[in-house]
Structure formats: structure tokens, C-alpha cells
Amino acid sequence: MNGTAWSLPDLAARALGGAVIAANDESFAEKEHLIRPYPVVHSAHTFGAKGQVYDGWETRRRRDEGHDWAIVRLGVPGVIRAVAVDTAYFTGNYPPRISVDACRADGHPALADLLEADWRTVVPVADAKGDHRNEYDVDDPTRYTHVRLNLHPDGGVARLRVHGTPVPDPAGFADLPLDLAALANGATVTGASNAFYSNPAGAIMPGLPASQADGWETARRRTPGHEWLDVRLAGRGTVRIAELDTTHLKHNAPGWASLDAADGDDTFPLLERTALQPDTPHRFLLAGDRPATAVRLNIFPDGGIARLRLYGRLTPDALRDLETRFRA
After folding, report:
1. Which residues form the Allantoicase domain (predicted)?
2. What is the pLDDT of residues 64-85, one digit of tens each?
């Protein structure tokens, strides 16, 4: 898997609204485990009513022709760039080959609709190893809403990750205020000075932070300077309200923060250096009407931010560009 694809968000993440819709078989272990956000765990010689307990999806031993499959709804539809099929702890019962199909079914399709959808292969039948993170590149510019993981012929998979670029439906944006920094709206974290304790993308995930680990947190800085987080906005737009949330960060919140914006090569301040409080959602009304394409969050000197929200409006050109990508 190339490094660029690996850095893209997991479109199937449960935190984004992903779900395992159906599987043709889950005799030994439940399909829902496929998109769990936690590291895979295993304890040998732990047996339940279905046999050895696995943190993953496992089908029966197939005695007839065909293969097993599971359908996953992407939490955020988009362009798929890479797929990881993790067979951690499946050693004598992993699928020797896998393939991945994808379809576009907007709205709220029922399972019957998905079974009749126009499925296209994004990962052709390929070898897979046991107890291994199997990674596959995808070269397809199509926007998809669902994927189907196929096991040839059967076996167990611990986790499925679908990395790609979000492409939301612009019909929901139509001249409405929205969070221009939300991953679900197409924003992306493009860089961070430090990501010691957590993935910086956590700062732009949906929902309220669940714990201290749910957000972006740096190591303790022992040198002069400060830490920063770069976000490419969902599109060129004007930011009017900024929310900097330090919920759950009681002894490791930044002392201060500021926001700088970029519009192409032009940079300008959005929020001057401002004191922050621990375990507190902060809301700032921003002056000015200059559009931006990216924002840098500066924290002084270090610490954590649970959520960054930048509410505003897309420019008419940015909205038209999103509509073009949606129709592609």
C-alpha cells in the first residue's frame, strides 16, 4: 500500500457511521467485528458455544461451491484508494484468497436493493496470508457507498479497513452553514507537528469526544516552539465560527491556541492567540469574510484538542466543484 493511501481515513469506520449490513455466514464469529475500532485481541483456548472465541468474522468450513461474503456500508461515501484485510490470529482458518467489490447505492437502500446493485470489482481475487495485515491498492475514481468483502472460499478475517477520500452529497450543503473541518464533509488532516498519543484525524471526527484518547494529543514539548495541526477544508469557504473543544483533557489541555488560514499561497489569521481552559468546549465568533482552503490550528506549547469545528459556508465555485465530483 502506498503511503499516501495509508494516510487517508477509513471510510468504513464505525465512528463515521459505517456498519456491516449482512453476511452470508457467520457460524463461528460475528460479522460486526470487522469494523471494530480497537486493536485485535486474542486469548487461546477460550471456547464458547461456537468454538474458539475470535475477535473477528469467521465462517464455517465450506463443503460446496462458491464463496463467503460480507457487505459493509461506508460511514462516509467516497473514492476508495486502498483496502486492508487483517487476518490477525487466524492461522489455520484464514481465507487463502480474497476479493473486494463496491457499489454506489445512495439514500437508504435495503438489503434486497444491495443484493441487486451494480457491484464492481475494486480488488480482484488476490492471495491473503494468515495472521497478517494484507494490503491492497485500489485504482478507481468512482464514488462508492458500500463494499463487499469476499472470502475464497471461507475462513476468518479480524478487521477490514477501507481507506479513501470522502465525497459527500452536496445536496445537503446547499448554501447552508456547515462544519468545513469535518471529515464527514470531505475535510482532511494533512499534517501535524506531533502525533505521539493519538491519530490527529480524531480531532475532525463526528460526535462528542468519548474519552481523553478521542482526539489529537501530542507528547510533552521539551524544546522551544509550539505544536500545530493542518486541515484541508471540505472546500473553499468562509469560516465564521470556530470551536476548540478540550473535553476530557483536564491536565493536558493547551494553555493557548490560535488559528491561521490559507487561500492558495495567501495566509492570514483567523483567531489570535487565545487562552484555553481544560475540559471545556470553546466557541469563538470570527471576524472577516475572506475565504480559505486550509486552516492551521496552533497550540501553545503542547497538549490535546478533542475536536476542532470550523463552521461556515462554501463559496459558489466550491459547491459546484463538489457537485461535479459527486456526479463523477
Report:
1. 17-166, 186-314
2. 999 999 999 999 999 999 999 9
Cα 56 to chain centroid distance, Å, stands at 19
Sign of the torsion angle spanned by Cα atoms 309, 315, 318, 320: positive
Q: How many CA atoms lie within 13 A of 76 on its CB side?
A: 28
User: Which structural domain range is residue 143 located in?
Assistant: 3-166
- Beta carbons within 10 angstroms of residue 168's beta carbon: 21
Does residue 223 fall inside a structural domain? Answer: yes
State the amino acid at position 184 in one-letter form: A
Record the pTM. 0.83
Q: Give tens-digit pLDDT for 124-174.
A: 999 999 999 999 999 999 999 999 999 999 999 999 999 999 998 887 776
Is 148 in the same domain as 177? no
Omega cis (within 30) before 153 = yes
Is residue 165 within 8 A of residue 8, CB to CB? The reply is yes
- Please tell me whether residues 236 and 278 are part of one structural domain: yes
